[in-house]
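Internal tracking record. Fields below are filled automatically when a chain is submitted to the structure queue. Please do not edit lines marked as system-generated. If the sequence contains nonstandard residues, flag them in the REMARKS field before resubmitting.
Queue: standard
Priority: normal
Entity type: single polypeptide chain
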Amino acid sequence: IEPDDLPARGESAHDFAETLDRELAALPDDYRAALLLCAVQGHSPPEACRALGWSLGQLRGRLHRARTLLRQRLARHG
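SYSTEM-GENERATED OUTPUT FOLLOWS
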């Protein structure tokens, strides 16, 4: 999640939180898991890799794709 993903003008924090939750839920499971462990829960990449049974390359690729998809989905909401 990047600073540009913060609520747009006129959108309340509550509305944005609902939108974010909905769009996170719509991500494919692997992408959502990577994003939640690293960006939301604050796990380090090695911790996330151990928890998910992935290599560091797999984690990085899925994190990158998850962020890209989430950014695109949030952009549709303004």
